[in-house]
Design brief:
Layout: E1 4-5, H1 8-16, E2 20-23, E3 30-31, E4 34-35, H2 39-48, E5 52-57, H3 64-74, E6 83-85, H4 86-96, E7 102-106, H5 109-117, E8 121-123, H6 134-137, E9 146-151, H7 159-168, E10 175-178, H8 197-208, E11 213-214, H9 221-230, E12 237-241, H10 244-254, E13 257-261, H11 277-280, E14 291-293
Parallel strand pairs: 1-14, 2-5, 2-12, 5-6, 7-8, 7-9, 9-10, 10-11, 12-13, 13-14
Antiparallel strand pairs: 3-4
Length: 318
Protein backbone atom coordinates (compact mmCIF):
# COMPACT_ATOMS: atom_id res chain seq x y z
CA UNK A 1 0.00 0.00 0.00
CA UNK A 2 1.32 3.43 -0.90
CA UNK A 3 1.77 6.10 1.73
CA UNK A 4 -1.48 7.85 2.68
CA UNK A 5 -1.51 11.47 3.77
CA UNK A 6 -2.80 11.66 7.33
CA UNK A 7 -6.05 13.59 7.63
CA UNK A 8 -8.20 14.41 10.65
CA UNK A 9 -10.45 11.34 10.14
CA UNK A 10 -7.50 9.00 9.65
CA UNK A 11 -5.74 10.60 12.65
CA UNK A 12 -8.77 9.80 14.83
CA UNK A 13 -8.76 6.21 13.59
CA UNK A 14 -5.01 5.92 14.18
CA UNK A 15 -5.37 7.18 17.74
CA UNK A 16 -8.16 4.72 18.53
CA UNK A 17 -6.15 1.73 17.33
CA UNK A 18 -2.80 2.78 18.84
CA UNK A 19 -1.68 2.56 22.47
CA UNK A 20 2.06 3.13 22.03
CA UNK A 21 3.82 5.90 20.09
CA UNK A 22 7.52 5.40 19.32
CA UNK A 23 9.19 8.67 18.35
CA UNK A 24 12.52 9.12 16.65
CA UNK A 25 14.23 12.18 18.14
CA UNK A 26 16.63 14.02 15.81
CA UNK A 27 14.64 15.47 12.92
CA UNK A 28 11.30 14.62 14.55
CA UNK A 29 11.25 16.17 18.04
CA UNK A 30 14.29 18.41 17.73
CA UNK A 31 17.15 19.26 15.39
CA UNK A 32 20.36 21.28 15.54
CA UNK A 33 18.35 24.46 16.02
CA UNK A 34 16.26 23.22 18.95
CA UNK A 35 12.72 21.93 19.48
CA UNK A 36 10.71 21.38 16.29
CA UNK A 37 7.50 23.41 16.59
CA UNK A 38 4.46 21.33 17.52
CA UNK A 39 6.41 18.30 18.71
CA UNK A 40 6.37 19.08 22.45
CA UNK A 41 2.62 19.80 22.39
CA UNK A 42 2.12 16.50 20.57
CA UNK A 43 3.94 14.44 23.20
CA UNK A 44 2.13 16.16 26.06
CA UNK A 45 -1.28 15.71 24.38
CA UNK A 46 -0.68 12.03 23.66
CA UNK A 47 0.20 11.42 27.31
CA UNK A 48 -2.92 13.30 28.38
CA UNK A 49 -4.89 10.89 26.18
CA UNK A 50 -3.36 7.97 28.08
CA UNK A 51 -0.98 6.90 25.34
CA UNK A 52 2.47 5.53 26.08
CA UNK A 53 5.31 7.48 24.47
CA UNK A 54 8.83 6.17 23.82
CA UNK A 55 11.95 7.86 22.49
CA UNK A 56 13.82 5.69 19.96
CA UNK A 57 17.06 7.07 18.52
CA UNK A 58 19.90 5.79 16.37
CA UNK A 59 22.17 8.44 17.87
CA UNK A 60 25.00 6.67 19.73
CA UNK A 61 26.67 9.80 21.11
CA UNK A 62 24.55 9.90 24.31
CA UNK A 63 23.68 7.39 27.00
CA UNK A 64 20.07 6.84 28.02
CA UNK A 65 20.65 9.01 31.09
CA UNK A 66 22.07 11.79 28.92
CA UNK A 67 19.06 11.56 26.61
CA UNK A 68 16.81 11.82 29.64
CA UNK A 69 18.54 15.07 30.57
CA UNK A 70 18.08 16.38 27.03
CA UNK A 71 14.37 15.52 27.13
CA UNK A 72 14.04 17.36 30.45
CA UNK A 73 15.97 20.34 29.07
CA UNK A 74 13.49 20.69 26.20
CA UNK A 75 10.47 19.91 28.38
CA UNK A 76 9.57 16.44 27.08
CA UNK A 77 8.10 14.18 29.78
CA UNK A 78 10.26 11.04 29.88
CA UNK A 79 11.78 8.36 32.09
CA UNK A 80 14.96 6.42 31.37
CA UNK A 81 12.85 3.28 30.76
CA UNK A 82 11.09 5.08 27.88
CA UNK A 83 14.38 5.80 26.07
CA UNK A 84 16.23 3.43 23.75
CA UNK A 85 19.46 4.60 22.12
CA UNK A 86 21.97 2.60 20.10
CA UNK A 87 24.85 2.97 22.56
CA UNK A 88 22.66 1.17 25.11
CA UNK A 89 21.32 -1.44 22.67
CA UNK A 90 24.81 -2.31 21.40
CA UNK A 91 26.08 -2.93 24.94
CA UNK A 92 22.95 -4.89 25.79
CA UNK A 93 23.34 -7.03 22.66
CA UNK A 94 26.86 -8.03 23.72
CA UNK A 95 25.72 -8.79 27.27
CA UNK A 96 22.83 -10.91 26.01
CA UNK A 97 25.14 -13.09 23.92
CA UNK A 98 27.42 -13.52 26.98
CA UNK A 99 30.36 -11.70 25.39
CA UNK A 100 33.33 -11.96 27.78
CA UNK A 101 36.26 -10.55 25.80
CA UNK A 102 37.32 -7.00 24.95
CA UNK A 103 35.75 -4.62 22.40
CA UNK A 104 37.67 -2.31 20.08
CA UNK A 105 35.42 0.74 19.83
CA UNK A 106 35.32 3.12 16.91
CA UNK A 107 32.99 5.43 18.75
CA UNK A 108 32.53 7.89 21.59
CA UNK A 109 32.49 8.14 25.41
CA UNK A 110 28.74 7.46 25.66
CA UNK A 111 29.29 4.05 24.07
CA UNK A 112 32.05 3.41 26.58
CA UNK A 113 29.76 4.30 29.50
CA UNK A 114 27.06 1.92 28.29
CA UNK A 115 29.62 -0.87 27.88
CA UNK A 116 30.91 -0.15 31.38
CA UNK A 117 27.39 -0.46 32.80
CA UNK A 118 27.15 -3.94 31.28
CA UNK A 119 30.59 -4.94 32.59
CA UNK A 120 32.16 -5.16 29.13
CA UNK A 121 35.82 -4.19 28.73
CA UNK A 122 36.77 -1.95 25.82
CA UNK A 123 39.54 0.05 24.19
CA UNK A 124 39.94 2.54 21.35
CA UNK A 125 37.79 5.52 22.36
CA UNK A 126 39.45 8.91 21.80
CA UNK A 127 41.95 10.36 19.29
CA UNK A 128 44.26 8.03 17.41
CA UNK A 129 46.31 10.19 15.01
CA UNK A 130 48.24 8.90 12.03
CA UNK A 131 51.63 7.53 12.97
CA UNK A 132 54.47 5.90 11.04
CA UNK A 133 54.49 4.61 7.48
CA UNK A 134 53.37 1.44 5.71
CA UNK A 135 56.63 -0.20 6.80
CA UNK A 136 55.64 0.37 10.42
CA UNK A 137 51.98 -0.55 9.96
CA UNK A 138 52.65 -4.09 8.79
CA UNK A 139 54.12 -4.80 12.24
CA UNK A 140 51.37 -3.05 14.21
CA UNK A 141 50.64 -4.59 17.60
CA UNK A 142 47.10 -5.78 18.29
CA UNK A 143 45.43 -6.49 21.62
CA UNK A 144 44.94 -10.29 21.69
CA UNK A 145 41.91 -9.90 23.99
CA UNK A 146 39.88 -7.97 21.39
CA UNK A 147 37.17 -10.20 19.94
CA UNK A 148 34.69 -7.56 18.79
CA UNK A 149 34.80 -4.33 16.78
CA UNK A 150 31.95 -1.95 17.62
CA UNK A 151 31.41 1.05 15.34
CA UNK A 152 29.28 4.06 16.23
CA UNK A 153 29.56 7.81 15.82
CA UNK A 154 33.20 8.85 16.18
CA UNK A 155 34.27 12.48 15.87
CA UNK A 156 37.89 11.26 16.06
CA UNK A 157 37.66 8.82 13.17
CA UNK A 158 41.14 8.47 11.69
CA UNK A 159 43.16 6.39 9.27
CA UNK A 160 44.77 4.54 12.19
CA UNK A 161 41.41 3.68 13.78
CA UNK A 162 40.12 2.33 10.49
CA UNK A 163 43.28 0.27 10.10
CA UNK A 164 43.09 -1.19 13.61
CA UNK A 165 39.39 -2.04 13.24
CA UNK A 166 39.78 -3.61 9.80
CA UNK A 167 42.79 -5.60 10.96
CA UNK A 168 41.01 -6.98 14.04
CA UNK A 169 38.20 -8.04 11.71
CA UNK A 170 40.54 -10.22 9.68
CA UNK A 171 40.03 -12.69 12.50
CA UNK A 172 36.80 -14.52 11.52
CA UNK A 173 36.03 -15.06 15.21
CA UNK A 174 36.01 -11.31 15.88
CA UNK A 175 32.45 -9.92 15.97
CA UNK A 176 31.59 -6.87 13.88
CA UNK A 177 28.79 -4.77 15.38
CA UNK A 178 27.51 -1.35 14.28
CA UNK A 179 25.08 0.97 16.02
CA UNK A 180 23.45 2.11 12.76
CA UNK A 181 24.17 3.04 9.16
CA UNK A 182 22.45 6.44 8.90
CA UNK A 183 24.02 8.42 6.08
CA UNK A 184 23.76 11.93 7.52
CA UNK A 185 22.21 14.01 10.27
CA UNK A 186 19.00 16.00 9.80
CA UNK A 187 19.58 19.77 9.62
CA UNK A 188 16.80 22.17 8.67
CA UNK A 189 17.21 25.27 6.49
CA UNK A 190 20.88 24.59 5.72
CA UNK A 191 22.87 23.23 2.78
CA UNK A 192 25.45 21.73 5.15
CA UNK A 193 25.61 17.92 5.02
CA UNK A 194 26.75 16.45 8.36
CA UNK A 195 28.00 12.85 7.91
CA UNK A 196 26.27 10.20 10.01
CA UNK A 197 27.46 6.95 11.56
CA UNK A 198 27.03 5.15 8.25
CA UNK A 199 30.15 7.06 7.16
CA UNK A 200 32.20 5.46 9.94
CA UNK A 201 30.73 2.01 9.33
CA UNK A 202 31.47 2.21 5.58
CA UNK A 203 35.05 3.30 6.31
CA UNK A 204 35.61 0.13 8.37
CA UNK A 205 33.64 -2.44 6.41
CA UNK A 206 35.21 -1.47 3.08
CA UNK A 207 38.78 -2.54 3.96
CA UNK A 208 37.57 -5.26 6.34
CA UNK A 209 35.42 -6.76 3.55
CA UNK A 210 32.82 -7.76 6.12
CA UNK A 211 29.26 -6.71 6.89
CA UNK A 212 28.34 -5.73 10.46
CA UNK A 213 25.53 -6.83 12.73
CA UNK A 214 23.48 -3.62 12.96
CA UNK A 215 21.61 -3.15 16.25
CA UNK A 216 19.90 0.17 15.46
CA UNK A 217 16.97 0.98 13.22
CA UNK A 218 15.77 -0.56 10.96
CA UNK A 219 16.92 -3.80 12.61
CA UNK A 220 14.86 -5.52 15.30
CA UNK A 221 16.93 -5.19 18.54
CA UNK A 222 15.70 -1.68 19.39
CA UNK A 223 12.03 -2.59 19.33
CA UNK A 224 12.60 -6.02 20.87
CA UNK A 225 14.19 -4.40 23.93
CA UNK A 226 11.18 -2.10 24.41
CA UNK A 227 8.78 -4.96 23.79
CA UNK A 228 10.36 -7.03 26.57
CA UNK A 229 10.42 -4.16 29.07
CA UNK A 230 6.87 -2.91 28.46
CA UNK A 231 5.04 -5.95 27.05
CA UNK A 232 4.14 -4.08 23.85
CA UNK A 233 1.77 -5.44 21.23
CA UNK A 234 3.29 -4.52 17.82
CA UNK A 235 -0.18 -4.16 16.30
CA UNK A 236 -0.95 -1.39 18.84
CA UNK A 237 2.25 0.57 18.15
CA UNK A 238 3.12 3.29 15.65
CA UNK A 239 6.65 4.42 14.75
CA UNK A 240 6.95 8.15 14.04
CA UNK A 241 10.08 9.13 12.15
CA UNK A 242 11.69 11.20 9.42
CA UNK A 243 13.70 8.48 7.63
CA UNK A 244 12.15 5.94 5.29
CA UNK A 245 15.07 3.51 5.43
CA UNK A 246 15.51 3.41 9.22
CA UNK A 247 12.36 4.62 11.03
CA UNK A 248 9.81 3.29 8.57
CA UNK A 249 12.05 0.29 7.98
CA UNK A 250 11.89 -0.61 11.69
CA UNK A 251 8.10 -0.44 11.57
CA UNK A 252 7.98 -2.79 8.60
CA UNK A 253 10.51 -5.19 10.15
CA UNK A 254 8.60 -5.42 13.43
CA UNK A 255 4.97 -5.22 12.28
CA UNK A 256 4.27 -1.70 13.55
CA UNK A 257 2.20 1.05 11.97
CA UNK A 258 4.28 3.94 10.66
CA UNK A 259 3.96 7.71 10.36
CA UNK A 260 6.53 9.69 8.38
CA UNK A 261 7.06 13.36 9.23
CA UNK A 262 8.76 15.80 6.89
CA UNK A 263 10.91 17.79 9.31
CA UNK A 264 14.13 15.83 8.90
CA UNK A 265 15.75 13.74 6.20
CA UNK A 266 12.86 12.71 3.91
CA UNK A 267 11.20 15.29 1.67
CA UNK A 268 7.59 15.15 0.52
CA UNK A 269 8.79 14.93 -3.10
CA UNK A 270 10.24 11.49 -2.30
CA UNK A 271 6.89 9.99 -1.28
CA UNK A 272 4.66 7.85 -3.48
CA UNK A 273 1.33 8.93 -2.01
CA UNK A 274 -1.90 6.98 -2.44
CA UNK A 275 -3.02 9.15 -5.35
CA UNK A 276 0.23 9.16 -7.31
CA UNK A 277 1.71 5.68 -6.93
CA UNK A 278 0.90 4.83 -10.53
CA UNK A 279 2.74 7.94 -11.70
CA UNK A 280 5.85 7.25 -9.63
CA UNK A 281 6.04 3.57 -10.50
CA UNK A 282 7.82 2.85 -7.21
CA UNK A 283 7.69 -0.82 -6.27
CA UNK A 284 8.05 -2.74 -3.01
CA UNK A 285 11.86 -2.65 -3.19
CA UNK A 286 11.83 0.28 -0.76
CA UNK A 287 10.02 0.84 2.50
CA UNK A 288 6.83 2.91 2.38
CA UNK A 289 5.21 4.58 5.36
CA UNK A 290 1.58 3.85 6.15
CA UNK A 291 0.97 7.59 6.63
CA UNK A 292 2.78 10.88 6.09
CA UNK A 293 2.07 14.09 7.98
CA UNK A 294 2.47 17.50 6.43
CA UNK A 295 0.58 19.67 8.93
CA UNK A 296 0.91 20.18 12.64
CA UNK A 297 -0.03 17.57 15.23
CA UNK A 298 -1.16 19.66 18.19
CA UNK A 299 -4.35 21.05 19.64
CA UNK A 300 -3.72 24.60 18.53
CA UNK A 301 -2.50 25.43 15.06
CA UNK A 302 0.63 27.51 15.40
CA UNK A 303 2.97 28.95 12.76
CA UNK A 304 6.11 27.03 11.96
CA UNK A 305 9.42 28.81 11.76
CA UNK A 306 10.32 30.48 8.47
CA UNK A 307 11.23 28.00 5.80
CA UNK A 308 10.12 25.04 7.89
CA UNK A 309 7.69 22.32 6.95
CA UNK A 310 4.48 21.80 8.87
CA UNK A 311 5.40 18.50 10.36
CA UNK A 312 2.44 16.97 12.11
CA UNK A 313 -1.21 16.43 11.37
CA UNK A 314 -3.85 18.08 13.55
CA UNK A 315 -4.59 16.02 16.64
CA UNK A 316 -8.34 16.22 17.28
CA UNK A 317 -9.82 16.81 20.70
CA UNK A 318 -11.34 13.77 22.48
Amino acid sequence: MACERLTEPSAKALLKETDNFLFDCDGVLWDGRGVIPGSLETIIKLKELGKKVFYITNNSSRTREQYLEKCKQYGYPATVEEIVCTAYVAALYLRNISFKDKVYVVGNPAMGKELDQQGIRHTGIGPCPLQGTAADWIDMKLDPEVKCVLVGFDGHLSYMKIMYAATYLQNPECLFVATNEDTHLPVSNSSVRIPGTGTMVAAVKTPAQREPIVVGKPERPMFEELQKLHNLDPARCVMVGDRINSDIGLAKMCGLKSLLVLTGVTAESELPLQDDVSRTGITGKRFEADFSAATELCTSRQPVRDGGLKEFVFLPEF
